[in-house]
Design brief:
heterodimer, A: 181 residues, mainly alpha, 3 helices, B: 286 residues, 8 helices, globular
Chain lengths: 181, 286
Protein backbone atom coordinates (compact mmCIF):
# COMPACT_ATOMS: atom_id res chain seq x y z
CA UNK A 1 0.00 0.00 0.00
CA UNK A 2 2.75 2.43 1.03
CA UNK A 3 4.89 1.63 -1.97
CA UNK A 4 1.89 1.99 -4.24
CA UNK A 5 0.99 5.31 -2.64
CA UNK A 6 4.52 6.65 -3.01
CA UNK A 7 4.34 6.24 -6.73
CA UNK A 8 1.14 8.26 -6.89
CA UNK A 9 2.29 10.85 -4.37
CA UNK A 10 3.33 13.81 -6.42
CA UNK A 11 3.92 16.69 -4.06
CA UNK A 12 3.22 19.24 -6.79
CA UNK A 13 -0.22 17.84 -7.54
CA UNK A 14 -3.06 20.06 -8.55
CA UNK A 15 -6.44 18.48 -7.97
CA UNK A 16 -9.20 20.10 -9.97
CA UNK A 17 -11.84 19.42 -7.35
CA UNK A 18 -9.77 20.85 -4.51
CA UNK A 19 -8.91 23.85 -6.62
CA UNK A 20 -12.62 24.45 -7.20
CA UNK A 21 -13.38 24.02 -3.49
CA UNK A 22 -10.74 26.65 -2.80
CA UNK A 23 -12.22 29.03 -5.36
CA UNK A 24 -15.70 28.61 -3.92
CA UNK A 25 -14.42 29.24 -0.38
CA UNK A 26 -12.58 32.32 -1.55
CA UNK A 27 -15.63 33.56 -3.42
CA UNK A 28 -17.73 33.27 -0.26
CA UNK A 29 -15.12 35.14 1.80
CA UNK A 30 -14.66 37.79 -0.85
CA UNK A 31 -18.43 38.23 -1.11
CA UNK A 32 -18.74 38.90 2.61
CA UNK A 33 -15.78 41.28 2.61
CA UNK A 34 -16.93 43.11 -0.53
CA UNK A 35 -20.61 43.39 0.33
CA UNK A 36 -20.52 43.65 4.08
CA UNK A 37 -17.28 44.10 6.00
CA UNK A 38 -15.18 46.41 3.83
CA UNK A 39 -17.89 49.00 3.01
CA UNK A 40 -18.95 49.17 6.64
CA UNK A 41 -15.40 49.56 7.94
CA UNK A 42 -14.53 52.09 5.22
CA UNK A 43 -17.62 54.13 5.98
CA UNK A 44 -16.96 54.06 9.70
CA UNK A 45 -13.29 55.03 9.25
CA UNK A 46 -14.28 57.93 6.99
CA UNK A 47 -16.86 59.09 9.51
CA UNK A 48 -14.31 58.87 12.26
CA UNK A 49 -11.75 60.85 10.27
CA UNK A 50 -14.43 63.46 9.56
CA UNK A 51 -15.43 63.69 13.16
CA UNK A 52 -11.84 63.96 14.34
CA UNK A 53 -11.14 66.67 11.79
CA UNK A 54 -14.35 68.44 12.81
CA UNK A 55 -13.34 68.16 16.43
CA UNK A 56 -9.94 69.67 15.73
CA UNK A 57 -11.64 72.46 13.77
CA UNK A 58 -14.03 73.15 16.63
CA UNK A 59 -11.24 73.13 19.18
CA UNK A 60 -9.26 75.61 17.08
CA UNK A 61 -12.27 77.89 16.81
CA UNK A 62 -12.95 77.73 20.52
CA UNK A 63 -9.31 78.48 21.22
CA UNK A 64 -9.38 81.51 18.93
CA UNK A 65 -12.56 82.72 20.60
CA UNK A 66 -11.07 82.30 24.05
CA UNK A 67 -7.96 84.16 22.95
CA UNK A 68 -10.10 87.00 21.63
CA UNK A 69 -12.08 87.23 24.82
CA UNK A 70 -8.91 87.18 26.87
CA UNK A 71 -7.50 89.97 24.71
CA UNK A 72 -10.67 91.99 25.21
CA UNK A 73 -10.54 91.42 28.92
CA UNK A 74 -6.89 92.43 29.02
CA UNK A 75 -7.65 95.57 27.02
CA UNK A 76 -10.48 96.46 29.36
CA UNK A 77 -8.33 95.90 32.39
CA UNK A 78 -5.61 98.06 30.94
CA UNK A 79 -8.13 100.77 30.13
CA UNK A 80 -9.51 100.61 33.64
CA UNK A 81 -6.02 101.00 35.05
CA UNK A 82 -5.38 103.93 32.80
CA UNK A 83 -8.68 105.57 33.72
CA UNK A 84 -8.00 105.06 37.37
CA UNK A 85 -4.61 106.69 37.00
CA UNK A 86 -6.17 109.55 35.10
CA UNK A 87 -8.86 110.02 37.75
CA UNK A 88 -6.24 110.00 40.44
CA UNK A 89 -4.22 112.59 38.59
CA UNK A 90 -7.29 114.73 38.06
CA UNK A 91 -8.24 114.47 41.73
CA UNK A 92 -4.76 115.52 42.72
CA UNK A 93 -4.95 118.47 40.40
CA UNK A 94 -8.38 119.37 41.70
CA UNK A 95 -7.18 119.20 45.25
CA UNK A 96 -4.25 121.43 44.43
CA UNK A 97 -6.57 123.84 42.60
CA UNK A 98 -9.02 123.91 45.51
CA UNK A 99 -6.24 124.54 47.96
CA UNK A 100 -4.78 127.27 45.78
CA UNK A 101 -8.21 128.85 45.30
CA UNK A 102 -8.94 128.77 49.01
CA UNK A 103 -5.60 130.30 49.74
CA UNK A 104 -6.22 132.98 47.16
CA UNK A 105 -9.65 133.74 48.58
CA UNK A 106 -8.27 133.89 52.07
CA UNK A 107 -5.57 136.27 50.97
CA UNK A 108 -8.08 138.44 49.12
CA UNK A 109 -10.35 138.45 52.15
CA UNK A 110 -7.49 139.33 54.40
CA UNK A 111 -6.38 142.09 52.15
CA UNK A 112 -9.95 143.36 51.95
CA UNK A 113 -10.25 143.34 55.73
CA UNK A 114 -6.95 145.15 56.08
CA UNK A 115 -8.02 147.73 53.54
CA UNK A 116 -11.40 148.19 55.19
CA UNK A 117 -9.67 148.64 58.49
CA UNK A 118 -7.33 151.17 56.92
CA UNK A 119 -10.24 153.06 55.41
CA UNK A 120 -12.10 153.03 58.69
CA UNK A 121 -9.07 154.29 60.48
CA UNK A 122 -8.59 157.01 57.90
CA UNK A 123 -12.23 158.05 58.15
CA UNK A 124 -12.04 158.07 61.89
CA UNK A 125 -8.93 160.09 61.73
CA UNK A 126 -10.53 162.59 59.32
CA UNK A 127 -13.58 162.85 61.50
CA UNK A 128 -11.47 163.26 64.57
CA UNK A 129 -9.43 165.90 62.80
CA UNK A 130 -12.53 167.86 61.75
CA UNK A 131 -14.01 167.64 65.18
CA UNK A 132 -10.77 168.60 66.73
CA UNK A 133 -10.47 171.54 64.46
CA UNK A 134 -13.89 172.80 65.53
CA UNK A 135 -13.27 172.16 69.16
CA UNK A 136 -9.85 173.78 68.96
CA UNK A 137 -11.46 176.81 67.30
CA UNK A 138 -14.05 177.13 70.09
CA UNK A 139 -11.51 176.49 72.77
CA UNK A 140 -9.07 178.91 71.23
CA UNK A 141 -11.74 181.56 70.94
CA UNK A 142 -12.78 180.99 74.49
CA UNK A 143 -9.23 181.07 75.57
CA UNK A 144 -8.44 184.16 73.59
CA UNK A 145 -11.56 185.86 74.96
CA UNK A 146 -10.52 185.03 78.41
CA UNK A 147 -7.02 186.18 77.79
CA UNK A 148 -7.89 189.37 75.99
CA UNK A 149 -10.80 189.95 78.20
CA UNK A 150 -13.09 191.07 75.62
CA UNK A 151 -15.34 189.54 73.12
CA UNK A 152 -14.36 190.06 69.69
CA UNK A 153 -17.59 191.22 68.22
CA UNK A 154 -16.39 191.47 64.76
CA UNK A 155 -16.95 187.91 63.49
CA UNK A 156 -14.88 188.51 60.37
CA UNK A 157 -11.89 189.49 62.34
CA UNK A 158 -12.55 186.63 64.72
CA UNK A 159 -12.49 184.11 61.89
CA UNK A 160 -9.34 185.55 60.45
CA UNK A 161 -7.56 185.29 63.71
CA UNK A 162 -8.71 181.70 64.21
CA UNK A 163 -7.71 180.65 60.74
CA UNK A 164 -4.28 182.17 61.06
CA UNK A 165 -3.84 180.47 64.33
CA UNK A 166 -4.93 177.16 62.95
CA UNK A 167 -2.74 177.43 59.91
CA UNK A 168 0.24 178.00 62.05
CA UNK A 169 -0.78 175.17 64.25
CA UNK A 170 -1.31 172.81 61.32
CA UNK A 171 1.90 173.88 59.73
CA UNK A 172 3.88 173.16 62.77
CA UNK A 173 1.97 169.88 63.20
CA UNK A 174 2.77 168.79 59.63
CA UNK A 175 6.38 169.64 60.14
CA UNK A 176 6.43 167.57 63.23
CA UNK A 177 4.76 164.64 61.38
CA UNK A 178 7.27 164.87 58.50
CA UNK A 179 10.08 164.85 60.98
CA UNK A 180 8.71 161.68 62.56
CA UNK A 181 8.27 159.83 59.26
CA UNK B 1 -2.47 11.78 8.65
CA UNK B 2 -3.43 8.56 7.00
CA UNK B 3 -4.12 5.45 8.97
CA UNK B 4 -0.85 3.99 7.68
CA UNK B 5 1.28 6.83 8.96
CA UNK B 6 -0.59 6.85 12.25
CA UNK B 7 0.14 3.14 12.70
CA UNK B 8 3.72 3.73 11.73
CA UNK B 9 4.03 6.47 14.33
CA UNK B 10 2.44 4.28 16.99
CA UNK B 11 4.75 1.42 16.16
CA UNK B 12 7.72 3.77 16.12
CA UNK B 13 7.08 4.99 19.65
CA UNK B 14 9.82 4.15 22.13
CA UNK B 15 12.02 2.60 19.49
CA UNK B 16 15.20 4.10 20.89
CA UNK B 17 17.32 1.70 22.99
CA UNK B 18 14.89 -1.16 22.38
CA UNK B 19 16.99 -4.11 21.23
CA UNK B 20 15.63 -5.37 17.98
CA UNK B 21 13.08 -2.54 17.93
CA UNK B 22 12.02 -0.64 14.85
CA UNK B 23 14.43 1.86 13.38
CA UNK B 24 13.50 5.51 13.13
CA UNK B 25 11.27 6.28 10.20
CA UNK B 26 11.25 10.01 9.47
CA UNK B 27 7.83 11.32 8.43
CA UNK B 28 7.45 10.93 4.68
CA UNK B 29 5.53 13.11 2.26
CA UNK B 30 2.74 10.64 2.92
CA UNK B 31 1.52 12.96 5.69
CA UNK B 32 0.44 15.36 2.96
CA UNK B 33 -1.77 12.73 1.34
CA UNK B 34 -4.57 12.03 3.78
CA UNK B 35 -6.90 9.33 2.54
CA UNK B 36 -10.20 10.45 1.08
CA UNK B 37 -13.66 9.97 2.46
CA UNK B 38 -15.13 9.11 -0.88
CA UNK B 39 -18.49 8.25 -2.27
CA UNK B 40 -17.83 5.36 -4.55
CA UNK B 41 -14.43 5.71 -6.03
CA UNK B 42 -14.55 9.48 -6.18
CA UNK B 43 -11.14 10.89 -5.44
CA UNK B 44 -9.27 7.83 -6.56
CA UNK B 45 -10.57 7.67 -10.07
CA UNK B 46 -8.21 10.22 -11.53
CA UNK B 47 -4.85 11.77 -10.64
CA UNK B 48 -6.56 15.15 -11.13
CA UNK B 49 -9.09 14.60 -8.35
CA UNK B 50 -8.34 14.64 -4.64
CA UNK B 51 -11.72 13.81 -3.20
CA UNK B 52 -13.05 14.83 0.20
CA UNK B 53 -9.98 14.62 2.41
CA UNK B 54 -8.80 16.28 5.59
CA UNK B 55 -7.79 19.20 3.36
CA UNK B 56 -11.36 19.83 2.26
CA UNK B 57 -12.59 19.65 5.83
CA UNK B 58 -9.91 22.06 7.04
CA UNK B 59 -10.73 24.35 4.12
CA UNK B 60 -14.29 24.55 5.42
CA UNK B 61 -13.00 25.16 8.95
CA UNK B 62 -10.66 27.93 7.76
CA UNK B 63 -13.39 29.53 5.65
CA UNK B 64 -15.85 29.40 8.54
CA UNK B 65 -13.20 30.94 10.79
CA UNK B 66 -12.68 33.87 8.40
CA UNK B 67 -16.41 34.41 7.91
CA UNK B 68 -17.02 34.36 11.66
CA UNK B 69 -14.14 36.72 12.27
CA UNK B 70 -15.39 39.16 9.63
CA UNK B 71 -18.96 39.04 10.86
CA UNK B 72 -17.94 39.32 14.51
CA UNK B 73 -15.55 42.26 14.04
CA UNK B 74 -17.74 44.32 11.73
CA UNK B 75 -21.30 43.74 12.86
CA UNK B 76 -21.61 46.71 15.24
CA UNK B 77 -19.32 49.56 14.33
CA UNK B 78 -18.99 52.79 16.20
CA UNK B 79 -16.71 55.81 16.00
CA UNK B 80 -15.16 54.84 19.30
CA UNK B 81 -14.13 51.21 18.76
CA UNK B 82 -14.21 48.53 21.41
CA UNK B 83 -11.63 45.75 21.44
CA UNK B 84 -13.62 43.52 19.10
CA UNK B 85 -13.95 46.25 16.50
CA UNK B 86 -10.33 47.35 16.92
CA UNK B 87 -9.21 43.82 16.10
CA UNK B 88 -11.01 43.94 12.75
CA UNK B 89 -9.74 47.43 12.05
CA UNK B 90 -6.18 46.33 12.72
CA UNK B 91 -6.38 43.85 9.84
CA UNK B 92 -8.15 46.30 7.55
CA UNK B 93 -5.67 49.11 8.28
CA UNK B 94 -2.73 46.73 8.14
CA UNK B 95 -3.66 45.69 4.60
CA UNK B 96 -4.32 49.28 3.59
CA UNK B 97 -1.27 50.91 5.14
CA UNK B 98 1.29 48.13 4.65
CA UNK B 99 0.21 46.61 1.35
CA UNK B 100 -2.32 48.56 -0.69
CA UNK B 101 -1.10 52.13 -0.22
CA UNK B 102 2.67 51.44 -0.57
CA UNK B 103 2.10 49.28 -3.66
CA UNK B 104 -0.68 51.12 -5.46
CA UNK B 105 -1.25 54.43 -3.70
CA UNK B 106 -4.73 55.76 -2.97
CA UNK B 107 -6.10 54.47 -6.29
CA UNK B 108 -5.47 50.95 -5.04
CA UNK B 109 -8.12 51.33 -2.36
CA UNK B 110 -10.72 49.72 -4.59
CA UNK B 111 -8.72 46.47 -4.49
CA UNK B 112 -8.75 46.54 -0.70
CA UNK B 113 -11.60 44.00 -0.36
CA UNK B 114 -9.72 41.60 -2.66
CA UNK B 115 -6.46 42.00 -0.76
CA UNK B 116 -8.13 41.72 2.64
CA UNK B 117 -9.94 38.54 1.54
CA UNK B 118 -6.72 37.07 0.14
CA UNK B 119 -4.78 37.81 3.29
CA UNK B 120 -7.37 36.50 5.73
CA UNK B 121 -8.04 33.39 3.62
CA UNK B 122 -4.39 32.46 3.16
CA UNK B 123 -3.62 33.23 6.80
CA UNK B 124 -6.54 31.10 8.01
CA UNK B 125 -5.51 28.21 5.74
CA UNK B 126 -1.93 28.49 7.02
CA UNK B 127 -2.76 28.50 10.72
CA UNK B 128 -4.67 25.24 10.34
CA UNK B 129 -1.15 23.82 10.63
CA UNK B 130 -0.69 24.78 14.28
CA UNK B 131 -4.21 24.38 15.64
CA UNK B 132 -4.04 21.31 17.88
CA UNK B 133 -5.59 18.14 16.43
CA UNK B 134 -6.14 19.78 13.03
CA UNK B 135 -2.45 20.41 12.40
CA UNK B 136 -2.28 20.45 8.64
CA UNK B 137 -1.85 23.72 6.76
CA UNK B 138 -4.38 23.77 3.91
CA UNK B 139 -1.86 25.64 1.77
CA UNK B 140 0.50 22.65 1.92
CA UNK B 141 -1.71 21.22 -0.81
CA UNK B 142 -0.67 23.05 -3.97
CA UNK B 143 -4.23 22.97 -5.37
CA UNK B 144 -5.38 25.73 -3.03
CA UNK B 145 -2.63 28.34 -3.53
CA UNK B 146 -2.83 27.68 -7.28
CA UNK B 147 -6.50 28.64 -7.28
CA UNK B 148 -5.76 31.92 -5.55
CA UNK B 149 -2.71 32.66 -7.72
CA UNK B 150 -4.91 32.02 -10.75
CA UNK B 151 -7.45 34.58 -9.55
CA UNK B 152 -4.72 37.17 -9.03
CA UNK B 153 -3.24 36.28 -12.46
CA UNK B 154 -6.54 36.85 -14.24
CA UNK B 155 -7.21 40.06 -12.30
CA UNK B 156 -3.85 41.67 -12.96
CA UNK B 157 -4.03 40.91 -16.67
CA UNK B 158 -7.56 42.31 -16.81
CA UNK B 159 -6.53 45.41 -14.88
CA UNK B 160 -3.54 45.83 -17.21
CA UNK B 161 -5.65 45.60 -20.35
CA UNK B 162 -8.17 48.03 -18.93
CA UNK B 163 -5.71 50.64 -17.70
CA UNK B 164 -3.32 50.45 -20.68
CA UNK B 165 -6.25 50.75 -23.09
CA UNK B 166 -6.24 47.50 -25.03
CA UNK B 167 -4.72 44.05 -25.16
CA UNK B 168 -1.85 44.97 -27.49
CA UNK B 169 -0.94 48.08 -25.51
CA UNK B 170 -0.88 46.13 -22.27
CA UNK B 171 1.23 43.25 -23.56
CA UNK B 172 3.61 45.68 -25.19
CA UNK B 173 4.03 47.60 -21.96
CA UNK B 174 4.41 44.34 -20.02
CA UNK B 175 7.02 42.60 -22.19
CA UNK B 176 8.96 45.39 -23.90
CA UNK B 177 11.10 47.17 -21.31
CA UNK B 178 11.13 50.88 -22.00
CA UNK B 179 14.52 52.39 -22.78
CA UNK B 180 16.09 49.11 -23.91
CA UNK B 181 18.05 49.34 -27.20
CA UNK B 182 16.39 47.60 -30.16
CA UNK B 183 19.07 44.97 -30.76
CA UNK B 184 18.62 43.45 -27.31
CA UNK B 185 14.83 43.14 -27.57
CA UNK B 186 14.86 39.66 -29.20
CA UNK B 187 16.63 38.49 -26.04
CA UNK B 188 14.68 40.56 -23.52
CA UNK B 189 11.14 40.03 -24.78
CA UNK B 190 11.11 36.22 -24.36
CA UNK B 191 12.64 36.61 -20.91
CA UNK B 192 9.97 39.13 -19.95
CA UNK B 193 7.19 36.91 -21.30
CA UNK B 194 8.45 33.90 -19.36
CA UNK B 195 9.07 35.90 -16.20
CA UNK B 196 5.84 37.91 -16.18
CA UNK B 197 3.31 35.40 -17.46
CA UNK B 198 4.71 31.97 -16.59
CA UNK B 199 7.14 32.19 -13.69
CA UNK B 200 5.22 34.88 -11.84
CA UNK B 201 1.96 32.99 -11.16
CA UNK B 202 3.87 29.75 -10.56
CA UNK B 203 6.17 31.26 -7.93
CA UNK B 204 3.27 33.16 -6.44
CA UNK B 205 1.51 29.88 -5.66
CA UNK B 206 4.59 27.75 -4.94
CA UNK B 207 6.14 30.22 -2.49
CA UNK B 208 3.41 29.85 0.10
CA UNK B 209 2.90 26.16 -0.67
CA UNK B 210 6.59 25.29 -0.27
CA UNK B 211 7.09 27.12 3.01
CA UNK B 212 3.99 25.58 4.53
CA UNK B 213 4.97 22.15 3.23
CA UNK B 214 8.50 22.37 4.57
CA UNK B 215 7.41 23.87 7.89
CA UNK B 216 4.87 21.14 8.46
CA UNK B 217 7.36 18.44 7.58
CA UNK B 218 9.83 19.94 10.04
CA UNK B 219 7.27 19.99 12.86
CA UNK B 220 6.22 16.43 12.03
CA UNK B 221 9.86 15.33 12.18
CA UNK B 222 10.34 16.87 15.62
CA UNK B 223 7.15 15.24 16.85
CA UNK B 224 8.02 11.84 15.40
CA UNK B 225 11.59 12.00 16.72
CA UNK B 226 10.38 12.96 20.18
CA UNK B 227 7.92 10.08 20.18
CA UNK B 228 10.51 7.62 18.86
CA UNK B 229 13.10 8.58 21.50
CA UNK B 230 10.68 8.48 24.43
CA UNK B 231 11.55 5.13 26.07
CA UNK B 232 11.73 5.39 29.89
CA UNK B 233 11.46 1.61 30.25
CA UNK B 234 14.93 1.09 28.78
CA UNK B 235 16.64 0.97 32.17
CA UNK B 236 17.72 3.78 34.55
CA UNK B 237 20.57 5.15 32.41
CA UNK B 238 19.22 4.69 28.88
CA UNK B 239 15.72 5.53 30.03
CA UNK B 240 16.75 8.93 31.39
CA UNK B 241 18.91 9.63 28.33
CA UNK B 242 15.98 8.83 26.08
CA UNK B 243 13.68 11.11 28.08
CA UNK B 244 16.29 13.90 27.83
CA UNK B 245 16.55 13.46 24.06
CA UNK B 246 12.80 13.35 23.78
CA UNK B 247 12.54 16.56 25.86
CA UNK B 248 15.03 18.30 23.59
CA UNK B 249 12.91 17.30 20.63
CA UNK B 250 9.81 18.66 22.38
CA UNK B 251 11.56 21.99 22.99
CA UNK B 252 12.49 22.07 19.30
CA UNK B 253 8.90 21.31 18.38
CA UNK B 254 7.60 24.19 20.53
CA UNK B 255 10.22 26.66 19.31
CA UNK B 256 9.59 25.77 15.68
CA UNK B 257 5.84 25.95 16.20
CA UNK B 258 6.26 29.54 17.38
CA UNK B 259 8.54 30.11 14.42
CA UNK B 260 5.91 28.59 12.11
CA UNK B 261 3.29 31.01 13.44
CA UNK B 262 5.45 33.90 12.33
CA UNK B 263 6.07 32.29 8.95
CA UNK B 264 2.36 31.60 8.45
CA UNK B 265 1.60 35.25 9.01
CA UNK B 266 4.54 36.34 6.89
CA UNK B 267 3.63 34.10 3.95
CA UNK B 268 0.04 35.33 3.96
CA UNK B 269 1.45 38.85 3.99
CA UNK B 270 3.88 38.12 1.16
CA UNK B 271 1.18 36.45 -0.94
CA UNK B 272 -1.07 39.50 -0.56
CA UNK B 273 1.81 41.91 -1.07
CA UNK B 274 2.76 40.23 -4.35
CA UNK B 275 -0.87 40.30 -5.52
CA UNK B 276 -0.93 44.06 -4.84
CA UNK B 277 2.45 44.48 -6.56
CA UNK B 278 1.29 42.65 -9.71
CA UNK B 279 -1.96 44.61 -9.92
CA UNK B 280 -0.10 47.85 -9.24
CA UNK B 281 2.45 47.12 -11.99
CA UNK B 282 -0.34 46.32 -14.44
CA UNK B 283 -1.95 49.66 -13.63
CA UNK B 284 1.21 51.63 -14.26
CA UNK B 285 2.64 52.07 -17.70
CA UNK B 286 5.86 50.07 -17.82
Amino acid sequence: MLGLAAEEQNVLRIHIDELVFGLIAFAVIFGLVYKYAAPRITKMLDERADSIEGGIERAKKAEAEAEEIRQQYRDKLEEAHREYAQELEKAKEQRAAIIAEAREEAQVEARRLVEAAHAQIEADRQQAMAQLRNEIGVLSTELATRIVGETLSDSAAQNRVIDRFLDELEHSGNNQQAGVR
Amino acid sequence: MSADTLNLAAEGGGGLFTPGGPGFEAPSVGIFFPSAWSWGNYGETSPYLGGITKYAVLLVVATALVLLFLWWTSRRLSMVPDRRQSLGEIFYLFIREQISRPMMGAKGDKYLPLLLSLFLFVFAMNIMGIIPFLQLPVTSNLSYPVGLALIVYIIFIAVGIKSQGGVAAYFKSAVVPSGAPGWILPLLVPIEIISNFLIRPATHAIRVFATMFAGHLLLATFAAAGWYMFNPSAGPLFGSISVLFSGASLVGFIVFTAFEMVIMFLQAFVFTLLAALYIGQAQEAH
